Amino acid sequence: MSDATKGATMAGGGALAGAAIPAVVGKMGLAVGGTAVAVGAAPLAVAGAVAGLALFGISKLF
Predict the structure, then answer these.
(1) In whole angstroms, what is the distance from residue 47 CA to residue 39 CA?
(2) Which residue from 17, 21, 49, 54 has the fewest beta carbons nearer than 10 Å?
(3) Using the 8-state DSSP alphabet, how is residue 10 labeled?
(4) What phi and psi, each to the nearest 5 degrees, are found at residue 30?
């Protein structure tokens, strides 16, 4: 498997894991200083993809 394929696979897996969190846990929000903002599935999917790419980068170190 090439590095590009492995990186894309890890990013996709992270995105799926990030998108699955709101499906399992339910709706979430962030409350700061008397205000609140809803956090949906899209930002968590992006965060999951970033985490997957970070794991890919770490795996390349070893």
Answers:
(1) 12
(2) 54
(3) H
(4) -125, 120
Counting every residue, how long is the chain? 62
pLDDT tens digits, the chain, 62 residues: what are they? Answer: 899 999 999 999 999 999 998 888 887 888 999 899 888 888 889 999 999 999 999 999 98
Q: Which two tokens stand for residue 44?
A: 């968590």
Q: What pLDDT, on a 0 to 100 scale, did the predictor assign at position 28?
A: 84
33 φ/ψ sector (left φ>0, alpha ψ -120 to 50, else beta):
left
39: burial class by Cβ within 10 Å (0-12, 13-18, 19+)? middle
